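Exercise 3.2. Students should predict the tertiary structure of the chain below and write it as C-alpha coordinates, then compare their answer with the key that follows.

Predict this chain's 3D structure.
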Amino acid sequence: MGVARDGAVLAEAVHRGARSHADTLPTLVERALTEAGSTIEDLDALAVSIGPGSFTGLRVGLALAKGIAFAGRLPLVPVPTLEALAWVAEATSGETVCAGGRPCRLTPDAALSPQELAARLEEGTILVGDAAQAYEDVLGRRATHRPFATHHPSGGVVARLGAERLLAGHAIQPESGLGALEPVYVRPPDAELPRPASR
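Answer key:
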Protein backbone atom coordinates (compact mmCIF):
# COMPACT_ATOMS: atom_id res chain seq x y z
CA MET A 1 0.00 0.00 0.00
CA GLY A 2 1.26 3.45 -0.80
CA VAL A 3 0.31 7.09 -0.53
CA ALA A 4 1.53 9.58 -3.14
CA ARG A 5 1.14 13.30 -3.65
CA ASP A 6 2.45 15.45 -6.52
CA GLY A 7 4.44 12.55 -7.97
CA ALA A 8 6.20 11.73 -4.69
CA VAL A 9 5.59 8.65 -2.55
CA LEU A 10 4.80 9.81 0.99
CA ALA A 11 4.51 6.36 2.56
CA GLU A 12 4.50 2.70 1.66
CA ALA A 13 3.48 -0.29 3.75
CA VAL A 14 4.61 -3.77 2.70
CA HIS A 15 3.94 -7.23 4.10
CA ARG A 16 5.57 -10.41 2.87
CA GLY A 17 4.24 -13.48 4.56
CA ALA A 18 1.83 -16.36 4.51
CA ARG A 19 -1.18 -14.55 5.95
CA SER A 20 -4.06 -14.00 3.58
CA HIS A 21 -4.68 -10.72 1.77
CA ALA A 22 -7.96 -10.33 3.63
CA ASP A 23 -6.09 -10.35 6.95
CA THR A 24 -3.24 -8.02 5.98
CA LEU A 25 -4.64 -5.43 3.55
CA PRO A 26 -6.72 -3.35 6.00
CA THR A 27 -3.71 -3.12 8.33
CA LEU A 28 -1.44 -2.05 5.46
CA VAL A 29 -3.89 0.66 4.40
CA GLU A 30 -4.02 2.00 7.95
CA ARG A 31 -0.21 1.88 8.32
CA ALA A 32 0.44 3.68 5.01
CA LEU A 33 -2.06 6.42 5.84
CA THR A 34 -0.60 6.87 9.33
CA GLU A 35 2.97 7.10 8.00
CA ALA A 36 1.82 9.69 5.44
CA GLY A 37 0.04 11.68 8.16
CA SER A 38 -3.23 11.26 6.28
CA THR A 39 -6.69 9.83 6.70
CA ILE A 40 -9.20 8.48 4.19
CA GLU A 41 -10.86 11.91 4.26
CA ASP A 42 -7.63 13.51 2.95
CA LEU A 43 -7.51 11.36 -0.21
CA ASP A 44 -8.55 12.54 -3.67
CA ALA A 45 -8.86 9.00 -5.04
CA LEU A 46 -7.84 5.37 -4.56
CA ALA A 47 -5.65 3.45 -7.00
CA VAL A 48 -5.83 -0.32 -7.20
CA SER A 49 -3.70 -2.84 -9.05
CA ILE A 50 -6.19 -4.42 -11.46
CA GLY A 51 -4.16 -7.35 -12.78
CA PRO A 52 -3.12 -9.62 -14.25
CA GLY A 53 -2.07 -11.49 -11.14
CA SER A 54 -3.23 -13.93 -8.49
CA PHE A 55 -6.94 -14.66 -8.84
CA THR A 56 -7.63 -14.50 -5.10
CA GLY A 57 -5.29 -11.59 -4.44
CA LEU A 58 -6.84 -9.46 -7.17
CA ARG A 59 -10.38 -10.19 -6.00
CA VAL A 60 -9.59 -9.40 -2.35
CA GLY A 61 -7.66 -6.23 -3.19
CA LEU A 62 -10.32 -4.95 -5.55
CA ALA A 63 -13.13 -5.74 -3.10
CA LEU A 64 -11.39 -3.77 -0.34
CA ALA A 65 -10.68 -0.84 -2.68
CA LYS A 66 -14.31 -0.79 -3.87
CA GLY A 67 -15.55 -0.83 -0.28
CA ILE A 68 -13.31 2.05 0.79
CA ALA A 69 -14.11 4.03 -2.38
CA PHE A 70 -17.83 3.56 -1.93
CA ALA A 71 -17.82 4.40 1.80
CA GLY A 72 -15.52 7.39 1.31
CA ARG A 73 -17.22 8.55 -1.92
CA LEU A 74 -13.82 8.44 -3.63
CA PRO A 75 -13.01 7.83 -7.29
CA LEU A 76 -11.29 4.49 -7.94
CA VAL A 77 -8.44 4.33 -10.46
CA PRO A 78 -7.52 0.93 -11.95
CA VAL A 79 -3.78 0.51 -12.58
CA PRO A 80 -2.55 -2.36 -14.80
CA THR A 81 -0.22 -4.56 -12.74
CA LEU A 82 2.20 -5.07 -15.62
CA GLU A 83 2.66 -1.31 -16.00
CA ALA A 84 3.48 -1.05 -12.28
CA LEU A 85 5.93 -3.93 -12.68
CA ALA A 86 7.60 -2.27 -15.69
CA TRP A 87 8.12 0.91 -13.64
CA VAL A 88 10.31 -0.92 -11.11
CA ALA A 89 12.53 -2.58 -13.76
CA GLU A 90 15.12 0.23 -13.63
CA ALA A 91 15.29 0.39 -17.42
CA THR A 92 17.06 3.23 -19.16
CA SER A 93 15.61 5.16 -22.07
CA GLY A 94 15.33 2.98 -25.17
CA GLU A 95 15.54 -0.37 -23.34
CA THR A 96 12.66 -2.81 -23.80
CA VAL A 97 11.01 -4.16 -20.65
CA CYS A 98 8.99 -7.36 -20.72
CA ALA A 99 6.76 -7.42 -17.61
CA GLY A 100 5.03 -10.47 -17.56
CA GLY A 101 13.08 7.36 -18.33
CA ARG A 102 9.14 6.17 -18.34
CA PRO A 103 7.76 2.90 -19.59
CA CYS A 104 5.52 3.11 -22.64
CA ARG A 105 3.22 0.16 -23.34
CA LEU A 106 4.17 -1.62 -26.57
CA THR A 107 1.81 -4.65 -26.40
CA PRO A 108 -1.45 -5.60 -24.72
CA ASP A 109 -1.44 -8.01 -21.76
CA ALA A 110 -1.10 -11.61 -22.92
CA ALA A 111 -0.81 -15.09 -21.41
CA LEU A 112 1.97 -16.89 -23.29
CA SER A 113 3.93 -20.09 -22.78
CA PRO A 114 7.63 -19.53 -21.96
CA GLN A 115 8.52 -20.75 -25.44
CA GLU A 116 6.09 -18.34 -27.14
CA LEU A 117 7.42 -15.45 -25.06
CA ALA A 118 11.05 -16.38 -25.77
CA ALA A 119 10.32 -16.33 -29.50
CA ARG A 120 9.01 -12.74 -29.23
CA LEU A 121 11.83 -11.33 -27.09
CA GLU A 122 14.24 -8.94 -28.69
CA GLU A 123 17.91 -9.26 -27.73
CA GLY A 124 18.59 -7.30 -24.53
CA THR A 125 15.00 -7.16 -23.29
CA ILE A 126 14.68 -6.70 -19.52
CA LEU A 127 12.53 -9.39 -17.92
CA VAL A 128 10.70 -8.66 -14.65
CA GLY A 129 8.22 -10.78 -12.75
CA ASP A 130 8.30 -14.16 -11.06
CA ALA A 131 7.96 -16.10 -14.35
CA ALA A 132 11.32 -14.72 -15.50
CA GLN A 133 13.06 -16.63 -12.71
CA ALA A 134 10.89 -19.75 -12.92
CA TYR A 135 11.59 -20.12 -16.65
CA GLU A 136 15.07 -18.64 -16.73
CA ASP A 137 16.39 -21.62 -18.73
CA VAL A 138 14.02 -20.72 -21.59
CA LEU A 139 13.71 -16.94 -21.24
CA GLY A 140 17.12 -15.95 -19.94
CA ARG A 141 19.10 -16.51 -23.13
CA ARG A 142 17.96 -13.34 -24.88
CA ALA A 143 17.14 -11.14 -21.90
CA THR A 144 18.41 -9.49 -18.73
CA HIS A 145 16.59 -10.75 -15.65
CA ARG A 146 15.51 -8.47 -12.78
CA PRO A 147 14.58 -10.73 -9.80
CA PHE A 148 11.01 -10.48 -8.53
CA ALA A 149 12.33 -10.40 -4.95
CA THR A 150 13.87 -6.98 -5.60
CA HIS A 151 11.78 -5.72 -8.53
CA HIS A 152 8.11 -6.24 -7.71
CA PRO A 153 5.10 -3.93 -8.09
CA SER A 154 4.99 -1.60 -5.12
CA GLY A 155 2.15 0.29 -3.52
CA GLY A 156 4.03 3.53 -4.05
CA VAL A 157 4.31 2.93 -7.79
CA VAL A 158 0.61 1.99 -8.01
CA ALA A 159 -0.23 5.20 -6.10
CA ARG A 160 1.90 7.35 -8.43
CA LEU A 161 0.49 5.73 -11.58
CA GLY A 162 -3.00 6.06 -10.12
CA ALA A 163 -2.50 9.79 -9.60
CA GLU A 164 -1.42 10.19 -13.24
CA ARG A 165 -4.36 8.13 -14.47
CA LEU A 166 -6.72 10.18 -12.27
CA LEU A 167 -5.49 13.40 -13.91
CA ALA A 168 -5.91 11.76 -17.34
CA GLY A 169 -9.57 11.02 -16.59
CA HIS A 170 -9.33 7.25 -16.03
CA ALA A 171 -11.08 7.18 -12.65
CA ILE A 172 -14.35 5.42 -11.94
CA GLN A 173 -16.72 7.41 -9.76
CA PRO A 174 -18.39 5.57 -6.85
CA GLU A 175 -21.87 6.47 -8.06
CA SER A 176 -21.32 5.34 -11.64
CA GLY A 177 -20.21 1.76 -11.72
CA LEU A 178 -17.70 0.45 -9.20
CA GLY A 179 -19.60 -2.83 -9.36
CA ALA A 180 -18.74 -3.26 -13.03
CA LEU A 181 -14.98 -2.99 -12.41
CA GLU A 182 -13.45 -6.47 -12.62
CA PRO A 183 -9.87 -7.74 -12.31
CA VAL A 184 -7.90 -8.41 -15.49
CA TYR A 185 -6.87 -12.06 -15.42
CA VAL A 186 -5.74 -12.55 -19.07
CA ARG A 187 -6.29 -16.32 -18.75
CA PRO A 188 -9.03 -18.52 -17.27
CA PRO A 189 -8.59 -19.75 -13.67
CA ASP A 190 -6.82 -23.06 -13.06
CA ALA A 191 -9.78 -24.36 -11.07
CA GLU A 192 -13.37 -23.74 -12.06
CA LEU A 193 -16.55 -25.07 -10.54
CA PRO A 194 -18.34 -27.53 -12.81
CA ARG A 195 -21.45 -26.14 -14.41
CA PRO A 196 -24.69 -27.92 -13.58
CA ALA A 197 -26.08 -30.04 -16.39
CA SER A 198 -28.89 -28.33 -18.25
CA ARG A 199 -32.31 -29.90 -17.91
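Discussion points: The CA atoms of residues 130 and 148 lie 5 Å apart. The chain has two domains: 2-83+153-180, 89-146.
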